[in-house]
UniProtKB/TrEMBL annotation:
GO annotation, biological process: cell wall organization
UniProt entry keywords in alphabetical sequence: Carboxypeptidase, Glycosyltransferase, Hydrolase, Membrane, Protease, Transferase, Transmembrane, Transmembrane helix
Record PROSITE patterns: PASTA
Name of the protein in its database record: Peptidoglycan synthase FtsI
Gene: ftsI
InterPro entries: Beta-lactam/transpept, Beta-lactam/transpept-like, PASTA_dom, PBP_dimer, PBP_dimer_sf, PCN-bd_Tpept
EC number: 2.4.1.129
Pfam families associated with the record: PASTA, PBP_dimer, Transpeptidase
């Protein structure tokens, strides 16, 4: 073979080999792409994933905008020790500065310890090295400016993982009502958190992550596949100042009487808005916590507080009037083998129906009901049903217990059921259900649904507002409602709650003292009887604005009557509301002239100015304010009381009761545009106190010279 032929043969062989290799490669590619596609896609899925980005949960706020529950961001800081752009020269030049910065920020290790750990992680080529957990947003901002880290994720190896922790700034206050949700598979929860979970939780986002050595997952980029939509805010009806009073007043009484648990609820009469709701229970260490919402979830025999709807049923059916006479004899009456007694030894004798209610005579109640409804038991119970006493309130949070008003013919109905029901036994209701009924009496017969939520907001803009929900415009005739109001006022003026009478405003209400039945042992266990003390009513009696119920379960230090145990909590809450609600105060031209001569009227305003003036005239001051330059003044027979008037940023101040000299600079310094009409004391303001406002917003003040 010639040299030329040999060369051509070799070239042909090379070309042929190249073609064969190329065909093999193409075949392998086609095989991987199509024949083994499913296998490699599965492999890719193992190393890549789309992670859900949890949105920031919305806030739960008090009626004045203050936070009741909020998601506080916390971060986990990790580091990719060997990103391509982080050369050895850069690392060596900056490691000392980074170690020093970390040591100063976290104060958990020395500079040398940080440097040693970082260099060891670099040597191990760790891609997901843990720097610190539970880092705050403020710390994160500083950390992003540290040497190496300021280069970012891909050049400096900084990896930030975020999570949100739910915090309650006011700790125990209304804690159970605010509630919580269960994470993961235990979906559910309690309180507002659970009821409005879909509103608060927002919409999750997505982000791609890659598996790296050590079975860690690292974000591929800082950009999300889809951005999360943060949750909206829920604005509640709770007044945090009144909530604080209710909580601590209840706590003191529970401790004083060594009680098992208790509840207190304050509600606006016309709107049904709940301003305060406290629930406290004693633990094994004798400390009290909000572990259960007794106001909503616990139904018990209410005892004497149920005498109001019972008498209203009899009055509505025209069987009795409050002026009719009832002979309670010696205070003892028997029904079959069951003896019913009055608390007064020897009984009350012959008294009116109104006095039966005021003195809380069990004998009188049983006589009224048995004499008029014996043989007509269904008529009696159906009248109770007509007043919605067998219905839930429908409050927005989960866990409300159903009331139990037994019906004639039920399995548990007996010959003593009618007399027992007449004074609040053999039936069950929750504190909130009892309060809703009394609130309807205070509201002239209009029953409104108890309400915890005012609005839903998104970035400060209201997207939904909640309005009063009327259950029944008239639960009884106007004349029956009026007689019920007279009886409730009589309880405080002449009856079992005389200790709650108030010089500044009138209270109307009813005491309750009920024996607690044990499911297994009845009303007596080991020769002991447990009691539930309660007081429910409204104020001011002549123009009802607020209704309130207080229930104390198992007081064990000798006292157990409603007026002595639950009544003081009611009184303390009412006094605080009165002190902070100028519209409840008696107009000055109606104040007794004799008192005016002793203690002069003082405008609310600057504490130092008022104090100086009162001291000049030797007028006694009871200063209960603390740490604020602005006070609300209240005149008593003996002195002028100072109470805090809180001024908060972006919250409309309450200037009612002030003079224009104090109010004008206060409002203008807050960024509001002020106009006013009239002269004298400020009696009204166009922007509602404690609402959130925007700078430049207009507010008009109305002044009156009635002082």
């Amino acid at each position: 073979m010639s040299i030329r032929g040999e060369i051509i043969g070799r070239i042909g062989f090379v070309y042929g080999a190249v073609v064969v290799i190329a065909l093999i490669i193409i075949g392998a590619i086609l095989n991987i792409q199509y024949g083994q596609a499913e296998k490699w896609l599965k492999h890719e899925k193992v190393n890549f994933r789309e992670r859900t980005i949890t949105p920031t949960r919305g806030d739960i706020r008090a009626r004045d905008g203050r936070l009741l529950a909020s998601s506080v961001p916390e971060y986990e800081i990790r580091m990719d020790m060997v990103p391509e752009a982080l050369t050895s020269d850069i690392f060596k030049a900056k490691i000392d500065s980074l170690a020093l910065s970390l040591s100063k920020l976290f104060k958990d290790k020395s500079k040398d310890a940080y440097k040693k750990d970082l260099m060891a992680a670099r040597y191990r080529k760790e891609r997901y090295y843990l720097i610190q957990r539970n880092v705050t947003y403020h710390q994160l901002k500083q950390l992003k400016e540290f040497p190496i880290f300021r280069r970012g994720q891909y050049k400096g190896g900084l990896i930030v993982k975020s999570k949100n922790e739910r915090k309650k700034p006011f700790d125990k206050l209304a804690s159970r009502t605010i509630g919580y949700t269960f994470p993961g598979e235990r979906a559910g929860g309690v309180g507002i958190e659970a009821a409005f979970d879909s509103v608060l939780s927002g919409v999750p986002g997505k982000r791609m992550e890659q598996r790296i050595a050590g079975n860690y997952w690292k974000p591929i980029s800082d950009d999300a596949t889809s951005d999360p939509v943060n949750g909206m805010d829920v604005i509640t009806t709770i007044d945090i100042n009144i909530q604080d009073v209710a909580h601590n007043a209840l706590l003191r009484i529970l401790k004083k009487h060594n009680a098992r648990h208790g509840a207190a609820v304050l509600m606006e009469v016309q709107t049904g808005e709940i301003l305060a709701i406290a629930n406290l229970q004693k633990d094994e260490n004798d400390n009290y916590y909000e572990t259960f919402n007794f106001s909503v979830g616990e139904k018990t025999e209410p005892g004497s507080t149920f005498k109001l709807p019972v008498l209203m049923a009899a009055i509505e059916d025209n069987y009795v009037d409050i002026t009719d006479s009832i002979d309670t004899e010696d205070g003892i009456v028997n029904y079959y083998d069951h003896t019913i007694r009055d608390s007064k030894r020897g009984g009350y004798g012959k008294i009116t129906v109104q006095q039966v209610f005021e003195y809380s005579s069990n004998v009188g109640m049983t006589k009224i009901i048995t004499q008029n409804y014996q043989g007509r038991e269904k008529e009696f119970v159906e009248q109770l049903y007509a007043m919605h006493l067998n219905e839930k309130t429908g409050i927005c949070i989960p866990g409300e217990a159903s009331p139990y008003i037994k019906y004639p013919g039920d399995k548990l109905w007996s010959g003593i059921s009618l007399p027992q029901m007449s004074y609040g036994y053999e039936l069950q209701m929750t504190p909130l259900q009892v309060l809703m009924f009394y609130n309807a009496v205070a509201n002239g017969g209009t029953m409104v649904k108890p309400r915890l939520i005012k609005a839903i907001q998104n970035h400060g803009k209201t997207v939904k507002r909640f309005h009063p929900d009327v259950i029944d415009k008239r639960i009884a005739s106007p004349s029956t409602i009026k007689k019920a109001q007279i009886m409730l006022e009589g309880v405080v003026e002449n009856g079992t709650a005389r200790n709650l009478a108030n010089l500044n405003f009138k209270i109307a209400g009813k005491t309750g003292t009920a024996q607690i039945a044990n499911k297994k042992y009845g009303y007596k266990y080991q020769s002991k009887v447990s009691y539930q003390a309660s007081f429910v009513g409204y104020f001011p009696a002549e123009n009802p604005r607020y209704s309130c119920i207080v229930v104390v379960n198992e007081p064990s230090n000798s006292q157990y009557y409603g007026n002595a145990v639950a009544g003081p909590v009611f009184r303390e809450i009412a006094d605080k509301v009165y002190a902070t609600r100028h519209e409840m105060h008696t107009p000055l031209d109606q104040v007794d002239a004799g008192i005016q001569e002793l203690i002069p009227y003082s405008l609310s305003g600057n504490k130092n100015d008022i104090k100086y003036l009162l001291n000049e005239f030797n007028i006694p001051i009871d200063d209960k304010s603390a740490g604020t330059p602005w006070v609300v003044t209240t005149r008593t027979n003996d002195d002028v009381k100072f109470q805090n008037r809180l001024i908060r940023k972006q919250i409309v101040p309450n200037v009612v009761g002030m003079g224009i000299k104090d109010a004008l600079p206060l409002l203008e310094n807050a960024g509001l545009h002020v106009t006013f009409k009239g002269h004298g004391i400020i009696t009204d303001q166009s922007l509602r106190a404690n609402d959130v406002y925007q700078k430049g917003q207009h507010i008009e003040l109305t002044l009156s010279n009635n002082f």
